[in-house]
Amino acid sequence: MQLRPMTLACALALPLSANAQADTARTARDLDEVVVTATRTPVSANAVLAPVEVIDRDMIVRSQARSLPELLRGRAGVAISNQGGPGKLTTLFMRGAESDHVLVLVDGVRIGSATSGLVSFQDLPLSMIDRVEIVRGPRSSLYGSEAIGGVIQVFTRRDRGGIAPRATATVGSHGRREASAGIGGGSGTTWFGVDAAHQRTDGINACDVATPTPFDGGCFIAAPQPDADGYRNRSLSLRGGIDLGETFELTAQALLAEGENEFDGDFTDYSETTQQVLGARATWTVSDALTVQLGAGRNTDASDNFLGDAFTGYFETDRDSASLQADLSLAADHLLTFGADWLRDRVESDTTFDRTERDNRAAFAQYQGVLGAHSLQAALRHDDNQQFGEATTGNAAWGLSLGGGWRVSAGYGTAFKAPTFNELYYPFFGNPDLRPEESRSWEAGVALDAGAVAWRLDAFDTRVDDLIAYDAALFLPNNIERAQLRGAELGIDAEVAAWAMSGSVSVLDTENRSGGFNDGNELPRRARRSARLDVDRAFGDLRLGLTGVAEGARFDDVANTRRLGGYATFDVRAEYSLTAAWTVQARLANVLDRDYETASFYNLPGREWFLTLRWEPAQ
């Protein structure tokens, strides 16, 4: 979402007024960390009432992560499950909610498969990402379906200032070869950016089963397939914007990522995938008090599947969306946001679905205000879905600045998740009478921002009803399950003796409350304890860093009979600036060569090395 400088300044005046006593260092940091995902308006990260985390471009480059799942792994409230290494199916759980209970946006455009309900995180090219915003907790009151556990928004790169080129090249373990190049910039009223990237790896043996059976879970193979399963990804990103006069701005972007993925399977063992995101936005600054935005986009998620050279089927889903939003300043420190959203999901496949299209229309409104030391936020949304009918969701949050950088907050929100096309219409399996899954959440937090040290502790309790699961009485999926998700998250940023430190600790308690044999069990693939620590320091032209991720044990199945052990991994990295434009980076991942799984039977890489040469002249 592009914002004119005047619009941004006016929006920032609202949240920052509650922290007028902040010291200079903290104010500078706030101005750099502006988030839009939590409220659909630009707000200082320090003033957002919801728990948020921002990963900017400098942090992405410094981490030397090779993929988006790797960048997100171990962060507060986030659990990642991977099935066999780079490019393989990767699912993400937030605050213990289901993997399809997290809404994902790219430049404001909703993405994900309308058939499976999952997002192909592994296919989104990290080299083209400018920043990632993570918002934990329900946000259906602003975005509708899927935002039960939270929202993740990916922003592609934005180029301002003089026109400048850039390029990188990486080699590493398992035949890793990567290259990217781009150019971008602007002057006056226009800007543009173009980036292309290629990634290839021979991969590892995805499945590790000595004596498998076809339906034993995990890989679903009848005999071991001990070969390396490779992955390739080609991507292209185009962006641009223009200011038409003093009050009108147009922006547009396109992202295309094509993958080739090998894996172990008896029915399908190779797929060619496409992720495409198109979007455009017009912003009209009507006056100092009113800004209007009109946006539209399309996400295409497609795969052609093969067994050897034999074609086995294809799936393609399109998600067309449009939104109209107005932000009205009622008075100083009081902002009203209201608008309408439209979404259409369509499916094309050689599998015959009973229905291949549905529309969703919605209207929403939100109030944000500051009354002295008190901050308020309230939102309400009504969705009308062509398939399952109507749903109304809301949330309310309150914060109190106590002085000295201290703040407390509390909130309540409801959310829902629409059934997927597979659950509704898959031949002989779908149930068109399914209702949306629904949730209600309470949360409370306390935070301290003391300049050199900042931390935030949040606790939450979420109840999810009408969870969709297989019903043996109907031989179909049905709304028969319930769950309770409780936990706490602690995030810390500090600078100690010139070392920059960022860490998080998450505690999670999930409980199946559906009755029957699995009542009281933990939900699968969610660890009760997890933590991440990033440490970096610069010594002139040399920078050193370390990332540690630890997760406790978890179960891989709803019956809690298949246990996955806990683990801890450590990555070390270094980078050296050869000149102002040239940098060399080196990283050793999983230094201790830890053997672990996040999904039963699926291998993950052991110790790996990566070497990167980066060229990025100053603008």
From TrEMBL:
<keyword id="KW-0813">Transport</keyword>
<dbReference type="InterPro" id="IPR037066">
    <property type="entry name" value="Plug_dom_sf"/>
</dbReference>
<keyword id="KW-1134">Transmembrane beta strand</keyword>
<dbReference type="Pfam" id="PF07715">
    <property type="entry name" value="Plug"/>
</dbReference>
<dbReference type="InterPro" id="IPR012910">
    <property type="entry name" value="Plug_dom"/>
</dbReference>
<dbReference type="InterPro" id="IPR036942">
    <property type="entry name" value="Beta-barrel_TonB_sf"/>
</dbReference>
<dbReference type="InterPro" id="IPR010101">
    <property type="entry name" value="B12_transptr_BtuB"/>
</dbReference>
<keyword id="KW-0812">Transmembrane</keyword>
<protein>
    <submittedName>
        <fullName>TonB-dependent vitamin B12 receptor</fullName>
    </submittedName>
</protein>
<feature type="domain" description="TonB-dependent receptor plug">
    <location>
        <begin position="48"/>
        <end position="151"/>
    </location>
</feature>
<comment type="similarity">
    <text>Belongs to the TonB-dependent receptor family.</text>
</comment>
<keyword id="KW-0675">Receptor</keyword>
<keyword id="KW-0798">TonB box</keyword>
<keyword id="KW-0472">Membrane</keyword>
<keyword id="KW-0406">Ion transport</keyword>
<keyword id="KW-0998">Cell outer membrane</keyword>
<dbReference type="InterPro" id="IPR039426">
    <property type="entry name" value="TonB-dep_rcpt-like"/>
</dbReference>
<keyword id="KW-0732">Signal</keyword>
<dbReference type="InterPro" id="IPR000531">
    <property type="entry name" value="Beta-barrel_TonB"/>
</dbReference>
<feature type="domain" description="TonB-dependent receptor-like beta-barrel">
    <location>
        <begin position="240"/>
        <end position="591"/>
    </location>
</feature>
<dbReference type="Pfam" id="PF00593">
    <property type="entry name" value="TonB_dep_Rec_b-barrel"/>
</dbReference>
<feature type="signal peptide">
    <location>
        <begin position="1"/>
        <end position="22"/>
    </location>
</feature>
<keyword id="KW-0626">Porin</keyword>
